[in-house]
Amino acid sequence: MAGATGARDTGLAQLESEIVSCRACPRLVAWREEVARVKRAAFADEDYWGRPIPGFGDPEATVLVLGLAPAAHGGNRTGRIFTGDRSGDWLFGSLHRVGMANQAESVSRDDGLELYGCWVGAAVRCAPPANRPTPAERDTCLPYAVRELELLPAVRVIVCLGSFAWDAALRILVAGGEPRPRPRPRFGHGAEARVGGRTLLGCYHPSQQNTFTGKLTRPMIDAVMRRARELGSRSGADS
Fold first, then answer.
1. Burial code of 61-86, b = ≥16 C-beta within 10 A, e = fewer?
2. What is the pTM of this model?
3. CATH architecture assigned to 2-238
């Protein structure tokens, strides 16, 4: 067991190094570095990360939370997905309320945040212009997520934040060897789909557009995260 754990941790560290140094998509490289150079006035005195963002969390996670991509002045600034932006306030607040995080907010890579039974990643690892990666950029990033999931063998639940993440999760699972589900499961808030040995859970993305309009409320996101933890715990008990 110790040898397997060591190999997993080494694999995750190697994958992180490869992700952080990736320059495969010229448009994303140019954008992330321009944002890091120009900066937002509120963060003018900060050193932006300006590189791709690896996933992070508990290596024994049974739940993977999959987002779209880093925010230009969130993860692209702090170096950790969902850290330092309002979407992250909603996500980590919910994870804290359901017992999967030790604190309700995340402002920097070294702020003491710990996740329990949960790993957080993104379908695309670089901040995209207008928060819209192209299909080609999504597919270029796909192998990183496939390898990440292979290195997190306890994951049984994937929470997809938005339809883009839902589509990406289906592609990740099929690329990793799971059978292609027929008919193709449809995204929706609270939707569940069994794909091979894992369950996809749909959740509206905690973007300001959704949270300001009330399309996504705290009870709604908490219900999904609570369900994810329940399914993850159940899978662990059955294994």
1. bbbbbbbbbbbbbbbbbbbbbbbbbe
2. 0.95
3. 3-Layer(aba) Sandwich (3.40)
Distance CA 148, CA 94 (A): 23
Measured from the Cβ of residue 158, the count of other Cβ atoms closer than 10 Å reads 27
CA 100/CA 98 separation, integer angstroms:
6
Q: How many residues does the chain have?
A: 239
The angle at the Cα of 47, spanning 43 to 52, to the nearest 5 degrees, equals: 105
Q: Angle between the 86-97 and 218-238 helix axes, to the nearest 10 degrees?
A: 50
Tens of pLDDT, residue by residue over 88-102, are: 999 999 999 999 999
Burial annotation 214-234 (CB, 10 A radius, 16+ → b, else e): eebeeebbebbbebbbebbee
pLDDT at 239 over 80: no
100-118 pLDDT, tens digit per residue, is 999 999 999 999 999 999 9
Q: Locate the domains of the chain by residue range.
A: 2-238
Is residue 4 classed exposed, middle or buried when 0-12, 13-18 and 19+ CB atoms within 10 A define those classes? exposed
Sign of CA dihedral 11, 32, 76, 169: negative
